[in-house]
Amino acid sequence: MSTTSENASSISADEFQALEQKVLRAVELIKTEREARDAEQKARLAAEAELAQLRAQFDSHATRNNVVEDELTTLRQERDAVRKRVEKMLHQLDELA
């Protein structure tokens, strides 16, 4: 009868040890998953910050681009006005000759 009792307690100890190993693996898995989630969250926050910075740069460049386009339009208008004046003067010189 003591042999049966020893086998039962031996099995119980083995089962307990197996359960303990499963719990330890579960704890490690949870820890690993938490670390991965934290790393993903940090990466997402960094990406969002970089996106905000790039959007601000884009807005700045878009504003500067609009200013440059306006300046270019003004310079083209001035060039056309000067060209017309020069053509008018050349025409007047041709009439004098």
Write a short abstract of this structure.
With 97 residues, this protein is an all-alpha fold.
Instruction: Report how far the terminal alpha carbons are from each other.
Output: 140 Å
Q: What's the shape?
A: rod-shaped
Structure summary, number of beta strands: 0
Oligomeric composition of the shown chains = single chain
Helix content: over 70%
Profile the largest sheet.
Answer: none
Overall mean pLDDT stands at: 91
Notes on the protein architecture:
This protein is an all-alpha fold. It contains 1 helix and no strands. The termini are far apart.
Topology of this protein?
Blueprint: H1 2-96
Keywords:
97 residues; mainly alpha
